[in-house]
Amino acid sequence: xxxxxxxxxxxxxxxxxxxxxxxxxxxxxxxxxxxxxxxxxxxxxxxxxxxxxxxxxxxxxxxxxxxxxxxxxxxxxxxxxxxxxxxxxxxxxxxxxxxxxxxxxxxxxxxxxxxxxxxxxxxxxxxxxxxxxxxxxxxxxxxxxxxxxxxxxxxxxxxxxxxxxxxxxxxxxxxxxxxxxxxxxxxxxxxxxxxxxxxxxxxxxxxxxxxxxxxxxxxxxxxxxxxxxxxxxxxxxxxxxxxxxxxxxxxxxxxxxxxxxxxxxxxxxxxxxxxxxxxxxxxxxxxxxxxxxxxxxxxxxxxxxxxxxxxxxxxxxxxxxxxxxxxxxxxxxxxxxxxxxxxxxxxxxxxxxxxxxxxxxxxxxxxxxxxxxxxxxxxxxxxxxxxxxxxxxxxxxxxxxxxxxxxxxxxxxxxxxxxxxxxxxxxxxxxxxxxxxxxxxxxxxxxxxxxxxxxxxxxxxxxxxxxxxxxxxxxxxxxxxxxxxxxxxxxxxxxxxxxxxxxxxxxxxxxxxxxxxxxxxxxxxxxxxxxxxxxxxxxxxxxxxxxxxxxxxxxxxxxxxxxxxxxxxxxxxxxxxxxxxxxxxxxxxxxxxxxxxxxxxxxxxxxxxxxxxxxxxxxxxxxxxxxxxxxxxxxxxxxxxxxxxxxxxxxxxxxxxxxxxxxxxxxxxxxx
Length: 672
Known about the structure:
672 residues; mainly alpha
């Protein structure tokens, strides 16, 4: 079980994150300092400047367009400063160790405030470690910092001003990914005959965070249309949960009709995805409307002769009505406000709001950390542990006077994570990728015997792969970054045979050292998961109560307020549910505590089912609004569900689940 989870997490390849166009632009920006260095006969200086360009290019992958500029500038300045600090501290063991301890701890704390900040943190920490290991003359501290800054600024100017990507592409991609995840949820029904769970919520959280970040920028019409499309996706997702439950029994009775309806629904969602991705949110294409007509025809074939067929038709009508309004209504003329809580995404892979400044993010860190107290405590402990691990590994290789030994703290820096599972997973991926990269680079060099010009070309090709594979999988990214390091340093004229051998050994030792720090100074997720799961169950109870209040609300302002409260409660409950799921999954790779992990996994599974039931009731509660123009009455049952789909049953189920967690008998559900 553990080995299967480990292999899946370490080598899962996300093809949707393959970015060749972005990689081509970033590689062109990196090529400028490399080629200038070669032409000037100063290849090492070109490689040093390319370090800044490489980091600035990687920073361009996070956030919306304008915040990406801010993030790239932050990365440029921070990496230049740590370059200067690393060169100054390199010649004294105590200075290098102290810099690793203090700067490493601060950067680790900063990196926990979001994926974009983590990118800056990792890059700056890596540059600090390498610069203290190279031990350049102190007189070169300022020139080295200026070279790194210059390369980063060249990359920034090229990406922003010369060949920028579409300024709306991150937001379009995020919302389109939501519709793709909904289509995949429908397509998976033929593969799994069991009661479907809740559609993947991570794309929704990421999209809300990105649109919330983009709210302050002025391209109003399309932003408003994207918000409208995302709000529609929320309602479609809730109705899909009900349809998934109803379809289980109906697929057993009428598999052909159910499959045709599901196929037509998936095709319509895919077409909406395509429209959004191409910038047509709010004004559908001819093909989208054609797919919707085909979906209506499939829906008309349901004659409602049995209770299961009536239930199937009821949920399908809710979805079709929402799709019809989405594809027919013009986009609003001004931005719609993002729901409360949309700016608080879970700690997951995907786009995230970019930091303003390092100091500002550090001082506001407590406010931006997850609201669960156990997670805040773990964040501070990990920052201190990270700094100590980095300092001790630096002291170790410096005391032993190991040539190119900085690969040891560098490996610790990139592997040591807050969660034991992430450290273990990244360790397996990093070691596999490094070994593969070293062997591949050695084979290429042995076969081609390349000169400086060809090595520079090979380093640029490797840089393209670094950028293109950055978000797909850490193992293949490690292969690409290893190739880039070997080829670029070879092109700079530095002997690398010993460095390659040391890199392999140090990667292995660094991985073992990172795991050892987890064992000696543990922050086990199983211990934290129970408290976070309790918070998640309390939030879910608040959501269930808000949906019950919406179901009972009248019309007019009272109903509008109840709908907004339920929407906000859904976002808050989803955020903590995803955190709890991530923690429980992480705990599955930890040693010991098998009964506790099993209990937590069971509770998370039941929470997912309760969330599905509450989402379905939420869709029916919205259907009670006469302004929604939905055709079915809200009292059609969810025939296959083992629970009764009523407000009282949903609230009682949420409360009973919360009471099963130790220490929660007196817990009150937090106010949404």
